[in-house]
Amino acid sequence: MTPSAIAGSDRLTERMTEQTTERMTALIGEIRAVVDRGLPPELTAYLVGERLAPHLRAEADGPGALLTPAQCEGDPQRYRQHVLHAEEDGSFSVVALVWLPGQQTPIHDHVSWCVAGVHRGQESETRYRLVSDGRTARLVETEHVAGPTGTVAAFAPPGDIHLVRNACTTTAISIHVYGADVSRLGTSIRRVYRLPADQGR
Ligand SMILES: [Fe+2]
Predict the structure, then answer these.
(1) Which residues neighbour 150 within 8 Å (Cβ) at sequence distance 6 or greater?
(2) What is the pLDDT of residues 34-88, one digit of tens each?
(3) CATH code: domain of residue 141
(4) Distance between CA atoms of residues 198 and 137, nearest Å
(5) Cβ(138)–Cβ(197) under 8 Å?
(6) In total, how many domains does the chain have?
(7) The pTM is what?
(8) Cα 109 to ligand 1 centre (Å)
(9) Which phi and psi (to 5°) does residue 68 adopt?
(10) How many Å lie between the centroid of ligand 1 and the Cα of residue 201?
(11) CB neighbour class for 122 (10 Å; exposed up to 12, middle 13-18, buried from 19)
(12) Is the peptide bond before 101 cis (omega within 30 degrees of 0)?
């Protein structure tokens, strides 16, 4: 199976952008101001993470909310993606991912730089390194990271292989900003890895 076919099987279906709250609209403006500077991907991701952080944990309801109640709804079948914004020129997009207890991603990397901020609950992340001897390839776990509410992670390919899961007993919600138009692509996943994964050492 080709990488694109694998990614296609994990394609998320909600391609339309959803109505945003006043706070999210303000955040999108802050992100746009950073992205329009045209800085290198690593620096762009870092600065976008700085803008995102103060908006996390914003009250769940009312005028100060970051998300609408509908954008906090999960899906019993799999983690759910709500596309909140896709910039017209394709330079960035913003999504909310809702994870019910036990839900997780496959091991994957990304099409672009990415910023992820935990808005509610806690997410667990396992990072991997791809090791090849020229003929075969395998993954080695490099790090486990617990992400409580308020945690922000910013990264840019390459070296961005990971798995994210909600290991807690309550719903987790994270806000992700990508340097690509996820509403058009359907997913931020570049490649899903189905290789043997060794424990880190
Ligand atoms: Fe990811």
Answers:
(1) 53, 56, 57, 117, 118
(2) 999 999 999 999 999 999 999 998 666 667 899 999 999 999 999 999 999 999 9
(3) 2.60.120.10
(4) 11
(5) yes
(6) 1
(7) 0.86
(8) 6
(9) -80, 160
(10) 22
(11) middle
(12) no
- Specify whether the CB–CB gap between 15 and 86 falls below 8 A: no
Sorted by sequence, the CB contacts under 8 Å of residue 162 that are 6+ apart come out as 107, 108, 109, 125, 126, 127, 128
Cα of 143 from ligand 1 centre, angstroms: 14
Q: Tell me the angle at which helices 22-35 and 41-52 cross, rounded to the nearest 10 degrees.
A: 160
CA 105–ligand 1 middle distance (angstroms): 8
Task: Tell me the CA–centroid distance for residue 19 and ligand 1, in Å.
Answer: 24
Domain encompassing residue 106: 3-198
Strand partners, 196: none
